[in-house]
């Protein structure tokens, strides 16, 4: 049974859907996506320049400075930013005990596929130039950002470049052709991400490119040689089959895969970090999975306690 706190995410998408259909201006509590997330505390944020974009360093106190999560936000290529996702990424980095680099990319009105993938690859390369080795780097993202992380890893692999130690996909948009049966199965539960809406968003960023192109929709790609992938999705979201299909495709290619489907949850419910127990549970589950892959032991809380005792 989903918690009362988790209803905030459902209400968010219902309000968004109603405003979208009516064409009216979004109320502040919807346009400001970050209101779903509580401030993590003990986390510093520092702006930096990454190419022609502003990126954001997310620095939890007592975290390992030489372990970094590159995070790309979601938003359907029409919204989302380093600021909407700042607090959620703070919770995630704090739970892992690493730094994070929250990067961005062009919206669909600024450029078309595959420009956004090129910018994601540049972000990985920029981290390496800062002295953060790929073995100490993980890639993560939600929705469109998760799709970009997978595509960027494929680009790095094809170029013979070192790959990140692991990848996290939160409600990943891995199929721009919207072929999943969950669009119909969850149509009544997920009121915003209807197939027509997703098709429209995909067409805007594709600019005429094939939606089944492997870099646009990694569920159709050869995933051999990619690093371990952890996929999290909500049981009630229409994009659920994107994660299921990618997990199946990756397993068939010999990639280590973990798929977690959370009952009663909708798209990117982890944005309710610090507010809903389901979001906090999902974040801690990923942190436990990824710490060993970064060579980290224990939790950030445990390290804090040991330093206080010392």
Tell me what you see in this structure:
Pfam families: Abhydrolase_3 (PF07859). Belongs to the 'GDXG' lipolytic enzyme family. By secondary structure, the protein is of the alpha/beta class. It has one domain: Alpha/Beta hydrolase fold, catalytic domain (Rossmann fold), CATH 3.40.50.1820. Helices cover 37% and strands 17% of the residues. It has ten helices and eight strands. Strands 1-2-4-3-5-6-7-8 form an eight-stranded mixed beta sheet, sandwiched between helices. α8 (240-252) links the parallel β7 and β8. α3 crosses α9 (277-290) and α4 packs across α5. The longest helix has 16 residues, at 7-22. The protein starts with 6 loop residues before the first helix and ends with a helix. The model is unreliable at 301-310 (pLDDT under 50).
SSE layout and pairing:
Blueprint: H1 7-22, H2 28-31, E1 43-50, E2 53-60, E3 64-72, H3 86-96, E4 98-103, H4 115-129, E5 137-142, H5 144-158, E6 166-170, H6 182-185, H7 195-206, E7 229-234, H8 240-252, E8 257-262, H9 277-290, H10 300-309
Parallel strand pairs: 3-4, 3-5, 5-6, 6-7, 7-8
Antiparallel strand pairs: 1-2, 2-4
